[in-house]
Amino acid sequence: MSLLNEYIKRKLSIPELESELMKLILNYNKLRDTYLFVYAAAIGKPIPAIPLEQSDFYIIRDLLASKRDFKKVDIYIETPGGSGETAEEIVKFLHNNFDIVSFVISGEAKSAGTIIVLSGNEILMTETGSLGPIDAQMKIGRSIISAYDYMEWVEEKRKEAKKQGSLNPFDTTIIAQVTPGELGSVFHALKFAEDLVIEWLIDYKFKNWTVTETKKIPVSKEMKRKRAEEIAKKLTNHSKWRSHRRSIKIVDLEEIGLKIVKVDDDSKLSDIVYRIQTVCRMIFENTTSYKIFATQDNKMFRHAAPVGTPIKIPGKQRVDVAEIEQKCTKCGEIHKIYAKFVPNPRIDIDLKNKGFIPFPKDAKLICKCGFEMDLLGIKNQIEMKMGRKVLI
Hints:
Shape: globular
Largest sheet: 7 strands, mixed
Mean pLDDT: 87
Radius of gyration: 25 Å
Distance between the termini: 43 Å
Strand content: 15-25%
């Protein structure tokens, strides 16, 4: 039976899935004699804050700062990429506070995620795990884009203009908005990412590489640098990988000279890691959560606040209740909710007769389809608009 089917048949609630995740982390720690931190993003959800950002570093640091008595830390990471500067802060914090830092990949760790993983003393991957080409994510206008793809597009248009003598009106309009400062920032972002990888491979991944595997020749600092530069060059060669989103698997990484621990070779370890991946995805698919930060001791979830449409404020005088129509983002069911500002039992009677339910005490609404919505953002929105506290 597949793990997904197993968990579906067990019919675990969201709190039970969260408890299962923490139990799996504990089992992982016992097996590996380490301290595991799970950082997972819901890749694919249309939420702007999915990529790695500075606020993620603050949470990672906060949850791990009190664990400095541990010598080893493992980081389960799943991310589409994000800020290179944040990646640098995370790596420096980890290596400044733990003797051995390992990364576990069973899903995707792309772009800045790949950069972070390459700083590991050890890299553990399942058959489903993948890294991506070294790149930087840049905010250009209102969008987050690949720095490499951006530079490639600009270069393509430069060659096209040189060959044809002009560009079509659309491309001309777009190119006219590109500033030298913007181009410089993109170029430096790419170089910054490459330099980080070279530095971290030498300092961390190759830290215990003292003799060559076949001829047993002593490994010098120059040899480490040469190997690191070769690996970085291959991972920045997007013409080789064809796409910023290309999945680079274990066999690809071994071919370019990286040693990878194959999780699937250890049945007990692989079972735990695949279960962690499955549970995280079930939480993402059945809640408004889009980021998970979890250890055996603590857990934090980031939720995308669904927009209640519409929020009705009846009457023109002082308002004692707000009516909300919340659509389930999974099945489309409309939930009629009321939030009251005064302890008036008449409000409960009237609104329940109209088919409304009171605002949930924990700000969590569970639809009939099983999807859990976090309404804390809506509660804050109502309170800010009305200048009054919702009674729950």
